Amino acid sequence: MRHVRLVFLALFVAVAVHPPVTAQGLRFTLFERYLDALRLQGRIPGLSAAIVSGRHIIWERGFGYQDLGALIPATPNTPYLIGDISQVFSSLLLMQCMESGTVRLDDTLNQWTEEATPTGTTLRRVLAHVSGTTLPAVFRYNPAQYTALTSVITACNNQSYPLVLAEKIFDRLAMFDSVPGRVGAEAGGLTAKLFNPKKVIQYRSVLERVARPYRIDIRGRAVLSKHVDPGVNSSTGIVSTVRDLAKFSSALDDDVLLLSETRELAWANAFSQGGQFVPTGLGWFVENYYGQHLVWHFGLIPNAFSSLMIKVPDRDLTLIVLANSDGLNASFGLSEGNVTSSLFARLFLRLFVRSGPLRGNLGSLLNN
């Protein structure tokens, strides 16, 4: 921690002697410098980030390297495995099934899948990561159970899940740098037979640019990871970029993919526990931050990739961060449902959401 404080202090001095800028410009300057400081402290080789407002990217940047060996810089167009943020895509597809009248949130999993699932577990509970079948509702982040929604979405659309994902979201939003899992048997992923040859070529060209995954060895060095590709399902497996995720975020805000009332249902607390809300909506985490409603999710593939998306609907702000190690999220316990445990999230929220003067070093900024 002493090393962290020294880094923060040095960066504060660097910003303090910088020529005067506007208040908004200062926020971006601070955010960019401190975000890179957190990246370095977390030994993250490469990181890409964007802030979206007014349906446009108002700031974007790549830090470090997507490939340390070849010294290829990370950029806003670098593809990464986004891990559990894939869940917000499957949530949307399931909510579309609900809007069509094919699926009801209180249907049980057993009605839609032959996989072994606890009797009476409803789709609403799976989406909200709420365990059990009776009240009070108990939150327990359970991505393994969430994968059962793959069968529901497939049955609802009478089509393979990767195809549904590609046609209903990626193609519709021109997310040309997003891939519904690995394509081609040689990659241990999707069979190329699912897609036409042109689409296979497109996907493979994206996969060739995916950031290399890294882990930190016992000497504190970033070394290539030999992680097992998780494949694609309703819980994980999507490859994307911050620019493509910005398109997805804007489409949500513009009600392109869901009715506004459906989106609001997904972004509201799904259950209460003893009078207290659980920290989830339907496929999203939801939280209050100094009176501001936050909607967010994270991804964590140990020793390989991590990701974070935070939406502040009332401020028309979205942060998207992708990394090629687990250093973005591994230390913060985000599966407990508190995004402010993340220093990366706290930096964004303190600079762009919570009002107040921007004084002091990063340590004091994040603790005030």
Q: For the CA atoms, what is the radius of gyration?
A: 20 Å
**Uncertain residue ranges:** 1-21
Record field, number of beta strands: 15
Trace the largest sheet across and list its strands.
3-2-1-15-14-13-12
Biggest sheet descriptor: 7 strands, antiparallel
Q: Roughly what percent helix? A: 25-40%
Mean pLDDT: 87
Number of helices: 12
| Envelope shape | globular
State the end-to-end distance: 18 Å
Polypeptide structure, described:
The chain is α+β, with helices and mostly antiparallel strands and 368 residues long. It is built from twelve helices and 15 strands. It has helices at 2-16, 23-41, 86-99, 123-127, 143-146, 149-157, 161-170, 197-207, 242-253, 260-266, 343-352, 362-367; strands spanning 46-53, 56-67, 72-73, 80-81, 130-131, 138-139, 214-216, 222-224, 239-240, 272-273, 276-277, 285-289, 292-301, 305-312, 317-323. The strands form five sheets. Strands 3-2-1-15-14-13-12 form a seven-stranded antiparallel sheet, sandwiched between helices. The protein has a two-stranded antiparallel ribbon with strand order 4-9. Strand 13 (292-301) and strand 14 (305-312) form a beta hairpin.
Primary descriptors:
single chain; 368 residues; alpha+beta; two-stranded antiparallel ribbon; globular; disordered N terminus
